[in-house]
Amino acid sequence: MCCEDNKPKIKEQQLQLKQEQKNIKIVVLGDSGVGKTSLIQKFCFDTLSEKEQTTLGVAYQSAQIVIKGQVLKLHIWDTAGGERYRSLAQLCYRDANAAILVYNITNQKSFEQIYYWEQELFERCTKLSIGLAGNKCDLNEERSVQKDYAQKYANQHDFSFYETSAKTGEGIQILFTDVIQKYLGQYQQKQQQ
Ligand SMILES: Nc1nc2c(ncn2[C@@H]2O[C@H](COP(=O)(O)OP(=O)(O)OP(=O)(O)O)[C@@H](O)[C@H]2O)c(=O)[nH]1
Ligand SMILES: [Mg+2]
Fold it and tell me: Taking CA atoms, which of 3, 97, 98, 188 is between 20 and 30 Å from 60?
């Protein structure tokens, strides 16, 4: 009897929560094999699949987080780094609020390609919050991209920067949080103008 009485109240609260929930679209870009899918999996499910599983086209994942008391629904679009999927991936960039550009710290070429991904993004959207992820930082002995160098690049381009590992989880939560907070604080107003 008591539970039944509470039902309308619970529904009301759920509806209110839904209305208060803010939607944020995040796209993840970078060369094939840098670990985009793995980063997203680790962030959303705290798991890592060791086997190669190249993304075919694009994949979508949603997640909910609370930052400073605000409920946020994240719509995360995982694009394929492979050349043949580029035109499909481009469809995702539109209306993005934030982007995470990923390179592999053991692969210099994947870092050099960041500029390419940045241009790809800016051709289709501007005024978005961008994060740079130097992924696979657990493989420090095989490093070919120096952290200071990437940090300088990020500062020049106004990117949030963290080295991350989809294996250990290092840097992932803070990177996503930083990028989202930057969007909420700075870019949201610009996008509404
Ligand atoms: N050691 C280590 N391996 C990683 C890390 N992140 C991903 N990997 C491995 O790297 C390989 C490629 O990872 P994916 O997440 O499929 O890469 P992707 O960027 O999504 O590749 P595409 O879908 O082809 O664009 C997989 O074997 C992962 O297990 C990491 O942080 N550390
Ligand atoms: Mg992938």
Answer: 188
The CA distance from 7 to 177, in Å, is 34
Distance CA(118)–CA(58), nearest Å, equals: 18
In this predicted model, what pLDDT tens digit does every residue of 50-76 receive, in sequence order? 777 888 889 999 999 988 888 899 999
CA 116 to chain centre: 17
Question: What is the span of the domain harbouring residue 64?
Answer: 31-192
What total number of domains does the chain contain? 1
Which residues of the chain fall below pLDDT 50? 1
Does 101 map to a domain? Answer: yes
Report the alpha-carbon distance of residue 99 to residue 118 in Å, rounded.
Answer: 9
pTM score, two decimals? 0.89
Residue 52 Cα to ligand 2 midpoint, Å, equals 9
Pocket test for ligand 1, best of 28, 32, 36, 38 (most atoms within 8 A of CB): 38
Examine residue 21 and state whether it is found in any structural domain, yes or no: no
The single-letter DSSP state of residue 165 is: -
